[in-house]
Amino acid sequence: MKTQTPGSLIFFTPETIEGAAAPLFDAGISAGFPSPADDFKEQRLSLDEELVKNKEATFYARVSGQSMIGAGLEDNDLLVIDRSLEPENNKIAVCFLDGEFTVKRLRVSADEIWLQPENPNYPIINITEDNNFLIWGIVTNVIKKV
């Protein structure tokens, strides 16, 4: 289900579809020379079960922009965000800052919070009392097209 919110991210809520698991061949895939395999054990894999640990607190959002390309988050990638996780230093978080959503790496010290982009073309943001600021959730996974 798609939900529109202010800012540059579009949020989606996970919807479990019964029987939507895809086949998983748990034989390992070689990234080097091909390896002949006699036995492929086919299992079913649900991305919801793999990526969503707390359904009630998990959302998806699409990345808009290039500020996090150094962390592997590129324009139009799909983020898996868990709102039940505690924010910690060095985690990638979706934050609500002065009326807009943004995704940045958290830099937390005893008395300061910084939002660090992973692209040198974007400035580090120092959060002050003047900001309307909320850490909305922690990014746990990214889904990208290749």
**Number of extended strands:** 11
Structural class: mainly beta
Approximate strand percentage: 35-45%
In whole angstroms, the N-to-C terminal distance is 24 Å
What is the ordering of alpha helices and beta strands? EEEEHEEEEEEE
Question: Mind telling me the C-alpha Rg?
Answer: 18 Å
Shape: globular
Describe this structure in words.
The chain has 146 residues and is mainly β. 3% of the residues lie in helices and 39% in strands. The protein has one helix and eleven strands, in the order E-E-E-E-H-E-E-E-E-E-E-E. The protein has a nine-stranded antiparallel β-sheet with strand order 1-2-5-6-11-7-8-9-10, with no helix packed on it. Strands 3-4 form a two-stranded antiparallel ribbon. It is globular and about 55 Å long.
What is the fold's blueprint, element by element?
Layout: E1 2-4, E2 10-12, E3 22-25, E4 42-45, H1 47-51, E5 58-62, E6 78-82, E7 92-97, E8 100-108, E9 113-116, E10 125-127, E11 133-143
Antiparallel strand pairs: 1-2, 2-5, 3-4, 5-6, 6-11, 7-8, 7-11, 8-9, 9-10
